[in-house]
Amino acid sequence: xxxxxxxxxxxxxxxxNMLGGDGGEETLRGLIEFTPEEDDxxxxxxxxxxxxxxxxxxxxxxxxxxxxxxxxxIARVDLAVLRVAAWELCHAKETPDAVVINEAVxxxxxxxxxxxxxxxxxxxxxxxxxxxxxxxxNA
Length: 139
Description:
The chain has helices at 3-18, 25-31, 38-53, 55-64, 76-91, 97-111, 114-138.
């Protein structure tokens, strides 16, 4: 499975949805650089539905990690990357946290800029710390 490519496709579709598109099958064929196999497509669908269902909670979690920023100041593409990665960190336990963060940083650098990668890394590292601290409190 090409999880890296599936993740990139999901970010692009989340981004399109944020801009008012439908992020459907036509988008998938037009925006991504690979033809997803069945398990890739299932993972993309899982991410998209998870981000859509949990959008408010994901945004609240991301916003708690921002220092001197608000969600509306974040570049939309970076917010799409953050939403996908935050969903994976909080809901998709099969991917190691370090992989999720590293790939999110790479996607931010690819779709935005090198400094976006640093920003995404900082936000996601804070989110991970908060998630782990809450887990210890609830244990």
